[in-house]
Prior knowledge:
Blueprint: E1 2-5, E2 7-10, E3 13-20, H1 35-59, H2 62-74, H3 78-89, H4 94-110, H5 115-118, H6 121-136, E4 149-153, H7 158-162, E5 169-174, H8 182-190, E6 194-196, E7 210-214, E8 219-222, H9 226-249, E9 254-255, E10 261-268, H10 271-279, E11 285-289, H11 302-316, E12 321-324, H12 351-356, H13 358-372, E13 377-381, H14 387-407, E14 417-421, H15 424-428, H16 430-435, E15 441-444, H17 445-453, H18 464-467, H19 471-487, E16 491-494, H20 501-510, E17 514-517, H21 522-530
Parallel strand pairs: 3-4, 4-5, 5-6, 10-11, 10-17, 11-12, 12-13, 13-14, 14-15, 15-16, 16-17
Antiparallel strand pairs: 1-8, 2-6, 3-7, 7-8, 9-10
Helix pairs in contact: 1-2, 1-6, 2-6, 3-4, 4-6, 10-11, 11-13, 13-14, 20-21
Amino acid sequence: MQVYKGVSASPGLVMGPIYRIHHSGAGLGRIVELPVREQALFDAAVVLAKDELRQLEEAAEGEDRDIILFQRVMLDDPALNREVQEYIAAGAGSAAAMERAAAICARRIESVDDEYISQRSADVLDACRRVVNILDGRPRTPVQLEMPSILAGERIFPSDIVSVGRGMILGIAAAEGSVQSHAAIIARTMGIPAVAQLGPAFLNEAPLTRGILDADNGRLVVDPDREAVRAAQRRIVSGGILKKRMGVLKSQPCVTLDGTILSLRANCSCPEDIEIAMEAGAEGVGLLRSEFMIADGRIPGEEEQYYFYISCLQAAGGKPVTVRTFDIGSDKTVRGVSEPALNPALGMRGIRMSLARPQMFLDQVCALLRAAAKGPLQVMFPMITCAEDWRLTMELVDRAKAQLRQRGVPFQEDTVFGSMIEVPSAALLAPELAAQGCGFFSIGTNDLTQYTYAADRLDGRFSGYFAGESTAVHRLIDLTIAAAKQAGLPVCACGVSTSDPGRAVRYARQGVRILSMEASSILPVKAKLLEADLAAPETAQG
């Protein structure tokens, strides 16, 4: 028996056979033809790869579909194709040129100072690998599992998961990867336990036969002994009982032992996500990532956005929906909009990008104001850093309202607008933001931690800043909550940490009354909060 330690990317405990995925390396015996012929082969392979991805996209659902769409769009990336063309012109074969371009593009993305976008490097490699396999004549058939198994490999790509039947993947064990990767996002959406960053050593076990994947604690046990199997079986049975109990919790209000009422909401990207969240017991949408509607580098116009927001309200079934305006820049690039920067995380991103492109922002605000007349929709702005940011933003909101009045288009005049608290300056200046008319605060714990400690969320060496209690971040949250109480404003917290039941209790103790998280975390967090007594000393509850 051998135990390997990694990082939990999607919670759960499973036991079963391990299926090793091999992602082929460079092809052997390649024959290089004239550049014009190699370019033609490459162009044809890209067309075929996009067709295959389109088929996967049609079979996927919700955010999974968006992830595959990202890969398909990536194959049209001008920078990627330019790298391939130049290398082919220099005499390289098309497959080798694609491998080289993929590596260059992946490294470029990995260097971006934002966890979400840097993890998109795996999607680049996944999409480019498909093209290389076509050029090398390798089969691209989905993973064929004879029985439900734990998938294991250096990296597990989104296409590996989407192409396999949902009931056939017990869990995912990866030597590399991140909790922010698209593969991890899909695993969480599908409720598949996953552990990343296990290191390469476990893949050298010969053979990889059976294992226990304890994704609650970030562990993989290879060839477990009898006692380990029995312990896992006991936990699995207990987990099944807990799941039944969780089902009962769906309709139960979230009220702590001392009578504090809390609202648990979901982070979503599209109507399909919202439907899943409502089924999981969410009391609304605490964060709707509006930038996920952007595809193929095209920003939808006002009318298209309006119908998207209406669809989201319908999916929420009358429950509140909080929309974050486009968070373009740093983690999410859009052709023709995003700007190159030495440090994207400190450059043109969030509300700065919207203020720099007022017409884009006006179209979005007009659509949101119109949608707010159809249901409980409120809006928040990302990366507000000071009262001046808020003032300039609300000037554009007033312009949008004036335009709608002039056009005679119905809209919700008193739509509530709030600010995300993602940088220390916003927390320190929360009283000023409230005085300027901010309607609520939403604390983005991921970025707030990153900017507080100057710690790159993508760099594993600094993971300790994000993993546990953070005195500095909690003090900034205290400042935000104090300002909110003084002004009578609601406060929401969202981010990876809110999905942790213990840390959710910590936020509730500080005064947060709305918590937004992944849909799969809502019931476990609720179960913990129902047992919490916020009036009792913290040490009294262990």
